[in-house]
UniProtKB/TrEMBL annotation, chain A:
Main location class: membrane
Pfam family for this entry, one: MacB_PCD
Source organism: Dokdonella immobilis
Topological type in the membrane: Multi-pass membrane protein
The name this protein goes by in its record: Putative ABC transport system permease protein
Entry annotated with the keyword Lipid biosynthesis: no
UniProtKB/TrEMBL annotation, chain B:
Species annotation: Dokdonella immobilis
Top-level division of the source organism's lineage: Bacteria
Protein name per UniProt: Putative ABC transport system permease protein
Protein location: Cell membrane
Domain ABC3 transporter permease C-terminal: 313-428
Gene Ontology terms: cellular component: plasma membrane
Bilayer-spanning residue ranges: 21-44, 313-333, 353-386, 398-418
Keyword tags: Cell membrane, Membrane, Transmembrane, Transmembrane helix
Amino acid sequence: MEIRPIFSALMRSKVSMILIGVQVAMTLAIVCNALFIIGQRLDHMNRPSGMNEADTFYLGSSGFGQGFDARATIREDLATLRQLPGVADATVSNSVPMSEGGWSTGLSLQPKQKTSTADTAIYIVDDRALDTFGVNLIAGRNFKPEEIADVTFGDRLQPASIIVTKALADKLFPDGDALGKSIYMGEDPPTSTIIGIVDRLQQPWMSSSSIENSTFVPAFMPYGNSSRYLVRAEPGRRDEVMKLVEQKLSESNTSRIIGKVHTMEETRGEAYAGDRAMAIILTAVILALLMVTALGIVGMASFWVAQRTRQIGTRRALGASRSDILRYFQTENFIITTLGLLVGAVLAYAFSLWMMQSYQSPRLPWYYVPIGFVCLWALGQLAVLGPAMRASRVPPAVATRSV
Amino acid sequence: MFSYYLQLGMRSLRRNPILTALMVIGIGLGIAASMTTLTVMHLMGSDPIPWKSDKLHYVQLDNWSADNSYYDDGRPPDQVTYRDAVALMEAGKADKQSAMFKLSLPIQPENKELKPFRSLGRVAYTDFFGMFEPPFKYGGPWSHDQDAGHERVVVLGKDMNEKLFGGQDSVGRTVRMDDIDYTIVGVLDDWKLRSRYYDLTNGAFEDPDEFFMPFTAAIDLKQRSTGNNSCWKSSGDGWDAYLDSDCVWIQMWVQLDSPARLAEYKSFLDSYVNEQKKLGRFPRPLNNRLLDVNEWMADQEVVSRDVQVQTGLAFAFLVVCLVNTVGLLLAKFTRKSGEIGLRRALGASRREVFSQFLIESGVVGLSGGVLGLALTGLGLLAVRALYSEYKTVAHLDWTMIFVTVALAVVSSVLAGVYPTWRACRVQPAAQLKI
């Protein structure tokens, strides 16, 4: 393929070439970075909570007034819940993963340690929590019923035994011997002993930097007159059980409010609504951008074909085959696109640098740009195909016609 | 001449419908993407109370641990302790001042057909109303005396009054909350807040508060905040220990009517903290802040990073669309060299040719703007569907409609300048020779 004549033809319409090149360059920069952001969001959304989300739901109960007996109500409610048909297990918990509200504290290895060794979310639960959350105990044992301490809200939690996630155990004891060790919750004694380790349970906060550091604390501690129940239904029976639970609890005690029942699936949806929206919006931007760029190439190529009809005819008359003409326009497009892509690669990294500096985003991985090259080469070739085919059909006789 | 050129422009655009459609769609898409994101960003970040936003200041005191700062970058905590809030209220050194926190309470309606329900409201001092100026429909705020007397009074939001009393004047009646009767002193009218800027600690786009009650009365009833509470050391057991602790859970706003008053209040805060240091509190270096409304909104990133990134990308997309338009206009005008040559030969000046083609670009821009406006409407609809909490900030107003169309026309005329200039340089002789 003779590139020289293509180059000299391009040099005669520098501005159009630059315009297409700039479009391709900016498209590459935007598409690479947007795809990278989308990828990050999808990774974020795919993080497992560690729970059985499909069958689990939760609801709040809140009584009124100073005379309300929250402890008795919770005991009754749990007894009611656990014997309902279709309920696999139920527990009381101050929070659930992905709900964005909960408790956290620092854990230390020494008393009066200046900076805590690890931060953890705290789930204040009873001995049925592991089964209800659907987490897997990978070492040690569950709480015994007698280990659930009565605590008044506002008093310090001083659990003798706790169960932690594997991530937290490894953070506290990197040698992997966390089971049976004692740690300080807060800065003062007494210590709490790690009696069990579960494989995974997320914190309630989606933007937490240590999202898998969670601790189960065995305590019976109503928040004022309020409590939150987590219920796991038998597989496939969640929706019917939800209705039943709401109805039974409302009937059992009228001097309190049963809050809206939330499934864990809804909670996941709400927790990741922002990530989902960002991914959808950026996908729309990418598609619109690719469309505009492709249409721009079609428009410009059509114009060039129209402008050069006589020259094409002349070449055909001088013996060039139809595929020669087709290849001419394809090569021309390849050259322009490649020049644009080279500039675009620089732009893409510059944009990524700006994102890193302004928003502490991670660096754009190197492979996005080569993938972008291949995609835009393909887009350019597809876009130019129509006009190039039209060019190849120009009959040689055009050369002999005057305008 | 303008209307004649307008006609010529329309005719020329109709002659190449596909090329014209490509340009109009390109501009429309670019404008819609940038205007959708810009509208959200503009409404999110816009000054919620422009006539006094520089007078309202958010109080931050750094009572955090000597070993760790509250934020990693050293900024002081975003709330204050109970004891500091009460000390500042008692000192009363600002022109207006209110400590406040968020509270969720069960409401037990008189009307037995209504089931009891939970409601989110706010605990504050009466100056809250003077500072943030919510409109009253009936009655008014409670008095300073009622604050001092720990009285059980309440101001209801419009929706709550609608729900409990069918929207009637309920001033003087009572509402039962958590088994205690509160006397209604006022009912708010529609309070159109884009963001709940006076409390950003749980996100700026939560639902509006449904009731307001005196801080002093709520503390008597040992009501804890439903919002955030952070402690750097354990508070000890019981309610009194909690009130006395270094846990932060209260927001504190002051109104300072002049820069001189601001400077006075700053030095008052410094001397207060230095006084507390003598008691063994405030182990960190002096780090008080008094940000005004807009500074506080920027500090708490009310305009989220996602929205900023989306806006940046959308404008980059608009640039691509405009470059695209430049290319297509260039192609179009170059093909009309013959026509231009003829007009020039018949006596049209370059200036006339220039304005003719610039008007043609303007027509493309205007059509793109109209399409863009329609697409922006759709885009905002999509934003409302994707982000349920942004319903207050994803709306077109007249300013944004004007900006949209103006942006489309101006940017497409700019895009037309180079192709037009090229078109004007056509030599009449070269075109007429053949």
